[in-house]
Design a protein that fits this description.
With 677 residues, the protein is α/β, with parallel strands linked by helices. Helices cover 25% and strands 21% of the residues.
Length: 677
């Protein structure tokens, strides 16, 4: 099998923020605005008249914005002019997030960004989005990648620690620009399985059962951002998750709001107030209402208050949560100007963000015979594509030529792939670069590989289930993610050797094959089934060198542990590394599958050894205790493993723990910033 067994390490750019899941008594003190902001929210809610309180629990279609493209899906939170609370505008969260400037691509190149494993870059992405959103008059933005309900693979990958960290850093960038991040996904952003298996979205599930799964990612996002709000109803109705308030407000001590997308909180039928009471019971604080006008917090809520079914104190608590989130972002004091949304904002200044995401997020999956990087001295490279990717191929070919390579572009006819249907130049090429966006290219790739030359395949899609029947017959494979024109220059730099590959997979690449009975496709499910996937979570190669790990030691300090180890670069070129630390519970403890506990990003100079440490929260090995609102950690021997991916562990250490109860409150301390050494 030519599927590479050489596990080199690639890595990230500048320093990384490692997100410490420690615990303090009150989360509010650490959020922007602090405990003062939370108290201010309670005071402001108490000063509102009942009709004002009942109005601000909804965001309705924005009025007065004309027919501009920006206004098309805008909703407005009404504010209270009497109290100096401004109107705040936001997108309709029923759909995948789109840029305010009307760009043709989704808001962020999510999987490519997650593949960088670089929270600093994620924060930069959030800051860039904040500038754009504010200029276009929007004060609230949904950040996907994490959700209340479990999913095998969302936009930011399949691991709650990685996804929560990256989504949280995007949120931190948004908050710094006075934009409120709302953490939650919608079904259209879920990476569906190739075999058509769909998750169950009809059965109610207690939030306590999700505490160590999907809710962990949401908690990490809120902790990392130090503020925000939570979206429900994006994957299934809000009432699907029961007992949410007991975790979010009582156990986590999160002071902010739970927001429902349009229709997510239910709909009123025949003047029945039951949906309204159910939405309140589901901990929904604010409801978005679309142009159809279906809502549960409008006339029905006012009726429920009049009849006494809903107490005024409950409405006031909802308003307090809403205001607390807005005070976290500072948007009530720094609202985006209405004129920007009405008249059209000026174009944003150029930013290399998307190019940098590709430069750090492209993953080298295989590199037999070290064909990549292309050596100009070995002659021309033929690039082969089907017509749909011709514009992308032309940009990439131009960039490769600027990098010093002799590149010829050949376009196969639509559907061509069998011998005799490809352009004649293919049979003469010693090196062929195939830019491929889907399984329709598989026959073409297999045919080219059988011709005997060196073949490099660049995957230009975000499909974790992409089939690779040709894997054993090609030399190199690069996961370059869904194509954007900004990728041409950085991808050319990687393929030509001007820059080293540094991405690591944020998802398991399955090849479309799953063990029998496997409901999910994430790496923990594969581990429980004792099946090694095609390419594992965390995997990525380097073209410039390799690293070694040694001297792994783990010590406990209260509710945390610290793993320290050495990393050595024996080669003569610098290499970026992403050492990954995984934790595994004893065999006799439920849920013993290995999970990511933390990582570091570092550039290791030639011939140097660096000593690193990674903090680990012991709640990652705990079971949620609903009665105590904490994490119960069983006594026993826990294994911490250091490696290059979720299946390639090279160092192990055992940590003996007594029985512990780790508090459930969210971390209110700033995450330490680790500068790259």
């Amino acid at each position: 099998m030519r599927h590479s067994a050489t596990w080199y390490v690639a890595a990230l750019c500048t320093g990384i923020v490692f997100l410490r899941l420690s615990v303090l008594p009150a989360y509010a003190a650490g959020a922007p605005g602090g405990s003062t902001g939370t108290a201010h929210a309670a005071d402001m809610a108490a000063r509102m008249q009942p009709d004002e309180q009942q109005t601000v629990v909804q965001a309705r279609p924005a009025a007065g914005l004309g027919t501009t493209a920006e206004a098309g899906d805008l909703l407005a939170w009404p504010g209270v002019a009497r109290l100096g609370l401004p109107v705040l505008r936001m997108p309709d969260f029923a759909h995948a997030a789109q840029p305010a400037d009307g760009a043709p691509h989704p808001l962020l190149p999510w999987l490519a960004l997650a593949a960088t494993w670089d929270p600093d870059l994620a924060r930069r992405a959030g800051s860039a989005r904040a500038r754009s959103e504010w200029l276009h008059g929007r004060a609230v933005l949904r950040v996907g990648g994490v959700d209340l309900l479990p999913s095998g693979r969302l936009q930011a990958g399949e691991d709650q620690v990685l996804a929560g960290s990256m989504a949280g850093m995007i949120g931190a960038g948004l908050l710094a620009g006075h934009i409120l991040p709302v953490f939650g996904s919608v079904a259209t952003e879920e990476q569906s399985r190739a075999d058509g298996t769909l998750p169950d979205r009809t059965t109610q599930v207690p939030a306590a059962q999700l505490a160590s799964q999907s809710l962990l990612g949401v908690a990490m996002a809120l902790e990392t951002a130090h503020g925000g709000a939570i979206l429900c109803g994006g994957m299934a109705p809000c009432q699907t998750v029961t007992g949410l308030g007991a975790i979010v407000h009582d156990a986590w001590h999160f002071p902010g709001m739970v927001m429902a997308r349009p229709g997510g909180a239910g709909e009123i039928r025949n003047a029945d107030i039951a949906p309204t009471l159910a939405a309140v019971a589901a901990s929904v604080d604010m409801e978005q209402v679309d142009t159809d006008g279906h809502d549960v917090f409008g006339a029905a809520l006012r009726q429920a208050v009049r009849e006494g079914s809903l107490k005024p104190a409950q409405v006031q608590a909802m308003v307090t949560h809403i205001l607390a989130s807005f005070y976290m972002s500072g948007s009530l004091d720094h609202p985006p100007p209405f004129s920007s949304a009405h008249n059209g904002a000026p174009p944003a200044s150029p930013d290399t963000l998307v190019a940098d995401v590709e430069a750090q997020g492209a993953v080298l999956l295989q590199n037999e015979n070290r064909v990549v990087p292309f050596d100009p001295a070995l002659g021309p490279v033929l690039m082969l594509v089907h017509p749909a990717l011709r514009p992308a191929a032309e940009k990439l070919a131009d960039a490769l030529r600027h990098a010093g390579l002799n590149v010829a572009l050949s376009v196969a006819t639509e559907g061509a792939g069998a011998p005799g249907t490809l352009p004649p130049a293919v049979s003469q090429a010693a090196r062929t670069l195939v830019l491929s966006a889907g399984n329709d290219d598989n026959q073409m790739i297999s045919t080219v590989a059988e011709m005997g030359g060196h073949v490099v395949v660049v995957l230009a899609s975000d499909d974790p289930d992409r089939q690779m029947p040709w894997l054993d017959t090609v030399d190199s494979v690069v996961q370059a993610w869904a194509w954007r024109d900004e990728y041409a220059q950085p991808l050319a730099a990687l393929l030509s050797g001007q820059q080293d590959f540094s991405g690591h997979l944020p998802v398991t690449l399955t090849g479309g094959f799953y063990p029998p009975g496997l409901a999910d496709a994430d790496y923990r499910a594969f581990a429980r089934a004792h099946v090694v996937p095609l390419f594992p979570f965390g995997y990525g190669l380097s073209t410039r060198g390799h690293l070694t790990f040694s001297d792994l030691h783990v010590v406990r300090d209260g509710n945390h542990a610290t793993a320290s180890f050495s990393i050595t670069n024996p080669d003569d070129t610098p290499v970026r590394a992403v050492p990954q630390l995984y934790v595994e519970m004893p065999d006799d403890v439920p849920g013993a599958a290995r999970r990511l506990a933390g990582w570091r990003s570092i550039m290791v100079a030639p011939g140097h050894t660096v000593r690193l440490s990674v903090p680990v929260s012991l709640r990652l090995v705990g079971q949620w205790n609903p009665a105590g609102g904490n994490w119960s950690v069983a006594a026993g021997d826990y294994t911490l493993s250091l490696g290059f991916s979720s299946v390639m562990m090279v160092r192990h250490a055992t940590l003996h723990l007594p029985a512990l109860h780790v508090p459930g409150a969210l971390d209110s301390t700033a995450a330490p910033v680790m500068a790259s050494e």
